[in-house]
Design a protein that fits this description.
The complex is a heterodimer of chains A (130) and B (77). Chain A is 72% helix and 0% strand. Chain A contains 4 helices and no strands. Chain A starts with a helix and ends in a 6-residue tail after the last helix. Chain B is elongated, with a radius of gyration of 19 Å. Chain B starts with a helix and ends in an 8-residue tail after the last helix. The chains are: A mainly alpha (130), B mainly alpha (77). Chains A and B meet through helix 2 and helix 3 of A and helix 1 and helix 2 of B.
Chain lengths: 130, 77
């Protein structure tokens, strides 16, 4: 029994240490939420552009009023925005988890930013010159 | 000639939209700058203020989404 005690204590110490390490918040939750908030505010800029483009008249053939946008693209812009908003919500939820790893929040923000880039590209393909 | 005039008129009609968009972009930039300069909230008061700010920004995002999902104002004119 004596022979096993040191090993038992070592195992106990390892268990306690790993429990403490996992319970310890890896980063500050408010700081992570602030990161998400910054990305959300930055997204308002391309979203405003999307609203402007959405409000252009629908393209009609053969007589087309310019600038105009086709209904399909308008719907796509709406769908992409819905996914961006959902991804920001997910990022904010992740950031609100006490002890969450910063990498998890960054990955969620990156996913939202990537979707926002898709919206930006879509909006940029529509210009008054078209 | 008529096409150029109608294009010019169409663009002129959009000027208020462009001004509004420019103002919104400037406002977003200022908010972003202020948030960047502001230290991470630490006290209870700062945390409460941050929560209010966070909720307000989320409400802005939702209202802009509602605006995007509304029918095009361009077709009404």
């Amino acid at each position: 029994m004596r022979k096993f005690l040191p090993a038992l204590f070592s195992l106990f110490a390892v268990a306690i240490l790993s429990a403490c390490a996992s319970a310890q918040p890896t980063t500050d939750t408010v700081g992570l939420q602030k990161m998400v908030l910054q990305a959300e505010i930055a997204y308002q800029i391309p979203l405003r552009g999307a609203i402007t483009v959405k409000n252009w008249p629908t393209c009609k053939t053969p007589a087309t009023v310019k600038p105009c946008i086709d209904e399909g693209s308008r719907q796509t812009i709406r769908k992409v925005n819905a996914s961006v908003v959902a991804l920001f919500d997910k990022a904010m939820d992740t950031a609100s988890i006490p002890g969450v790893a910063q990498g998890d929040v960054t990955a969620d923000i990156q996913a939202a930013v990537k979707a926002a880039e898709a919206l930006k590209t879509l909006v940029n393909t529509w210009s008054p010159a078209q | 000639m008529i096409t150029i005039a109608s294009l010019a008129l169409a663009l002129l009609a959009r000027v208020p939209d462009y001004i509004a968009a420019g103002k919104d972009i400037y406002d977003s930039y200022k908010k972003l700058q202020a948030l960047h300069d502001q230290p991470t909230p630490a006290t209870q008061e700062e945390l409460a203020a941050f929560k209010v700010e966070m909720d307000a920004e989320h409400a802005t995002l939702l209202s802009m989404t509602a605006e995007l999902n509304a029918p095009s104002t361009g077709d009404a004119t």
